[in-house]
Amino acid sequence: MIVVHGRLTSSNVQPVLWLINELGLDYERRDVGGVFGGANTPEFLKMNPMGRIPVIQDGALTLFESQAILRYLAAEYGQGAVWADSASERARIDQWMEWAKTSVAPNVVYRIFWQLVRTPSAVRKLDDLHQGIEETKKVMLIANHRLSEHKWLAGEHISLADFSFAASLFRYFTLDFDKADTPHLNAYYERLTLREAYRNNVMIPYDSLRVEGA
């Protein structure tokens, strides 16, 4: 059985749990991080010296970093469903995975979500927030164009690119800020909300993360 160390409200844990549930794998989740603590214990730091979630254990294998975990789970258990056998196909998926992680998540999660939910309004860094909103408009327009040509981010079938990208979309669509006009992205998100594994593992209320005065 796979053991996942990490809290449900973590945007890095959510894509891992989403994939595990999409693949129908047996797993046990243990609350670590945030209000649960436990990430700085000697036992946890032995698994991840950075003291961050998620971490998974699968038999003798211990892994940290959500992107590496997604690739492992897909390769080991996906049977070609969300990954690919050929190097060229994997590379095409991989480029959109990394785009989502480096161009989308930092703006949605760390600039916008962090300022609107995790920071009291009186001390928000408004320059960071506004820059994050403008950068998010740009990347979401890129996604919208891509999704006007393909059903999923990397092509005609759901792939790891979607697990990396769409993990940010629940927060993106539920936070109140100025967004670009993205009808194809909106339709894509509506399709995602019909997937039980997405609803149960990504569409997690984040009220518990909101600080006083935010």
Per DSSP, the total helix count is 9
- The N- and C-terminal alpha carbons lie at a distance of 39 Å
Largest sheet: 4 strands, mixed
The geometry reads as globular
The SSE order reads: EHEHEEHHHHHHH
Strand order of the largest sheet: 2-1-3-4
Topology, number of strands: 4
User: Gyration radius, to the nearest Å?
Assistant: 17 Å
What proportion of the residues is helical, as a percent range? Answer: 40-55%
Key terms:
alpha+beta, four-stranded mixed beta sheet, 9 helices
Structural overview:
The chain has nine helices and four strands; from the N terminus they run E-H-E-H-E-E-H-H-H-H-H-H-H. The protein is an alpha+beta fold and 214 residues long. The protein has a four-stranded mixed beta sheet with strand order 2-1-3-4, with helices on one face. Helix 4 runs antiparallel to helix 5, helix 4 runs parallel beside helix 6 and helix 5 crosses helix 8. It starts with a strand and ends in a 13-residue tail after the last helix.
Provide a compact summary of the structure.
With 214 residues, this protein is of the alpha+beta class. It has 9 helices and 4 strands, in the order βαβαββααααααα.
